[in-house]
Automatic annotation (TrEMBL), chain B:
Name of protein: TRAP transporter large permease protein
Membrane topology, record value: Multi-pass membrane protein
Pfam families, alphabetized: DctM
Organism this protein belongs to: Sulfitobacter pacificus
Record bears the keyword Protein biosynthesis: no
Similarity field: Belongs to the TRAP transporter large permease family.
Assembly behavior: The complex comprises the extracytoplasmic solute receptor protein and the two transmembrane proteins.
Residues passing through the membrane, by range: 9-26, 70-92, 112-145, 157-181, 193-216, 237-262, 268-292, 304-323, 335-357, 364-380, 386-409, 421-441
Places the protein is found: Cell inner membrane
Keywords from the named record: Cell inner membrane, Cell membrane, Membrane, Transmembrane, Transmembrane helix, Transport
Free-text function comment from the UniProt entry: Part of the tripartite ATP-independent periplasmic (TRAP) transport system.
Chain ranges of the TRAP C4-dicarboxylate transport system permease DctM subunit domain: 15-445
From TrEMBL, chain C:
InterPro entries (alphabetical): DctQ, TRAP_DctQ
Keyword annotations of the record: Cell inner membrane, Cell membrane, Membrane, Transmembrane, Transmembrane helix, Transport
The protein, known as: TRAP transporter small permease protein
Localisation per UniProt entry: Cell inner membrane
Organism taxonomic ancestry: Bacteria, Pseudomonadati, Pseudomonadota, Alphaproteobacteria, Rhodobacterales
Organism: Sulfitobacter pacificus
Oligomeric form and interacting partners: The complex comprises the extracytoplasmic solute receptor protein and the two transmembrane proteins.
Amino acid sequence: ASAEEVQELKWAVPISFSSNLTALGDTLPWVAEQLKNASGGKIEFEVFEPNKMIPALSVFESTATGQIEVGYSWMGYERGQVPASALFGATPFGLEPAQFIAWMYQADGNALLQELFEPYNVHPILCGVISPEAAGWFKFPIETVEQLAGLKFRAAGLGGEIMKEVGMSVTVLPGGELYQALETGVLDATEFSLPTVDEQLGFYQVAKYYHLPGWHQPSTSQYLYISGDVWDDLNKTTQSLIETSCMAGVTYAMARAEALQGAVLNSFEDKGVTAEQLPEEVLQKFRDATEVVMTREAEADPMFAKIYGSMMAFKAENASWHALGYLPRDWAWDNASKPE
Amino acid sequence: MFDLAVNELLVSGMLLSFIALLFLGVPVVWSLAGVSFGTALIALGLHHYAGADTHFLDSWRDYSIIVPRIWSIVENGVLVALPLFVFMGLMLDQSGLAETLMREFAATLGRFSGGLAVAVILIGILLAASTGIVGASVVLLTTVAMPIMLEQGYDRRLAAGVIASAGTLGILIPPSIMLIIMADQLALSVGELFMGALVPGILLGLSYLVYVVAAVSLNPALAPRPANVTPLTARGLLRTFLAVMPPLGLMVAVLGSIFAGIATPTEAAGIGALGATLLAFANGRLSLTVLYEVARRTTLTTSFIFGIFIGATAFALVMRALGGDDIIAAGLHSIPFGSTGVVVTILIFAFIAGFFLDWLEITLIFLPLVGPVVIGDLGYDPIWFVILFSVALQTSFITPPVGFSLFYLKGAAPSEVTTPEIYKGIIPFVIIQLLIVVLIISRPEVVTWLPQLVYD
Amino acid sequence: MPHLVEDRPTAGHSHLVGSPPLLSRLIDRAIRFISVTAHLSWLVLIVVIISNVVLRYVLADSSVALEEWQWHLYGYGFMVGIAYCLVEDQHVRVDVLSEHWSPRRRAWVDLLAMFILIMPFAFVIARDSIPFVEFSHQLNEVSRSPGGLSHRWIIKAVIPFSMALVFLAALSRALLMIKIILESPSVQKGTPNV
Ligand code: NA
Ligand code: NA
């Protein structure tokens, strides 16, 4: 058989995060550029900023109901419709970026992803993975487990379920009220994103304690959602070009996210921000609650159980390598590059 | 060549037919919705039967994206406060307290020429600093103050102009939904934008005050004093104080609960609505009939505002799917002047677009296009530019024919206030806003001073 | 009673007719009846918000479900109210020119607006929102937030419901306009605006 030509595509591609948000929102515009160049201008993705065409949270729904051919979103916004999807967006105490792509590309991850979305006639392609997020911006430092009870926190998704489980007062204020609520103290704390993004949005102006790590989101993944019918109509050359560009997008996002956080984090001290890790006992408390919540979610949904099981089995298998193969994580801290 | 022109023709056709329908007296909401539908129909017809390039509008399912867009308006809780402030305003009115308040204000401040107008502006600034919800502020000021101003013989144009412009201050004076959305669009800090907007916002309010005082002293007939001015006595002052106390207390409770961090604006609005109901009860004016009437009229006022949102979302979708954004961007890139020329052109464009589109549409369509050019390529201070843009956009609320504040005012005002009177009354206030734009261009520190003081 | 948002026929022709056609009256009555639930939604909304504040400050607790009830109530209220505005003719117009027109001419404009602008839009959005609701129903959609509400399809169904009401309200008004056009002789020209 003769090699097929790349098909000409002109798609409007809505995204869920503003492309101005460094490392969080600028991956798909980069992928679109690569696709255009690699296809000699035949594949054109016109990126539509959030809410410009379809609402930021509707990418999955609009693809599944055939209103759009393709969109780009953080997986997990559709958690209310496809509960197990949250695991592919970010899993609390789950896989770190390198582990996550290992599970996706080399283990069962991608096959499970396609199995999960097949009933909805949607073909998702992993197209961006970023470094851990932060635990959040706090009005006061968290030093003990006792402080968690009743702590007024804004969080969504699985992380929010776990915070509820430990007795925090979780709310889902609309994004537009977030900054003011934190400023006036209606909220004690909120989580948002990576240090670069948090810095852009200026949360340090209203909350001076920045806690890490993002235990609820050790890696964050975004996907290109393509309507199943549209995907099946593409020839092998075109499919392959899109898949490869997304794989490059994953690399681009991982590199960009990892590269930029250090400088921003170091700049927080000048802004009067104290950045530190959550105490061990607090993390342990969240870890215990995670078990409870994940068990509950798995009991309610067989696909959730299957995917979470695969992910955890991979994590367990990888654990010995992860522990022995790398320098201990606190190694650098005992040497020259420790901050302070 | 012909294909290229089809979507441009359709986009211009949309704007023109929308304006034509408005002037035919078709309600705003149905002009927007109907034009979006008609344009989609024509575009799809041209695409399927004449092979025209209609950009991204090439199948009926593209039009159905309006459904998730409507859903996101339902799901977005930021505006829950709006019906509650409407409820509060109507209930204050029903309780008789608003009337007493304004009457006493009239007796005390009314002895000074333009006193009521000054009171309206001051209350407008307070509302702006607490809620920032323009629709609610204008409706509240209109229901509370307009009847009394008219009764006192105020010039209807002046009364309308003062209320519409004072009620619009909330979009600029923080907290501001507009600035929050702009911060989101350009990935800027909300706090810095808020600080940047504070000085220009208050300056704007003060300019209104100066204008009103000057206008009234030049032409006292604009705001006649009440016929029976009694001398200012201690007892009179006490009565004013007592009349002011309950609604003022409510206002303090509402604003205070926001500033003290007890409540979000939404919750504060709920507290305000309950408080107004309790005040009506304490005043012996609460009955089931009154409660029902207030609720019923809350539906009317709220739904006509949200109806316009739905019409606007349908209109914007079709315009974008037809490539309206690209047409605007192409226009921008062809501006021949230097960097100041680009900024001024953008402001003029925003001002003119504001005659026909509302701030939200302009912010969503236009800002992402021009922001990177001005901030990135030309290197202007982002906070300065966004505030400048905001002041220019703020005029969109009060410029005819599509000025949301004018609609709110018209919706809530006694029917004797006609649309032409509102249009004429607003002109001086539009001019003041433009003067502030000029001031910000010539003296950027009006904007940049406070954010630098606070955050650097 | 002090002045409020008036229930005033902005197009100013209802005083011309003894009563609207029977079908119009039936539709209007049904929509007014349904709209009572919208009016009540504001009262419930106040109660829910106060409960939320009390919960947080008195009991140091929070309920995402209660927070979500807020926008459920408000979404229901304003969506259903759109048809009610049409029934009460409360939508804002730019009446710069039409203020000087005869009621008959204004009735013509309204009639065409109903048939060309409103009814097709309402019909198409009602129709296209049904798959949207069905999708939610099939997936048994619940809130994506921790402890949020379930049965999302019910509140999503407010879109087709509201648009169907708008369609009916427009039909009712169109019938009224036809009656006005048929019954009002050209003598009525120049009747002062209300
Ligand atoms: Na404000
Ligand atoms: Na305007």
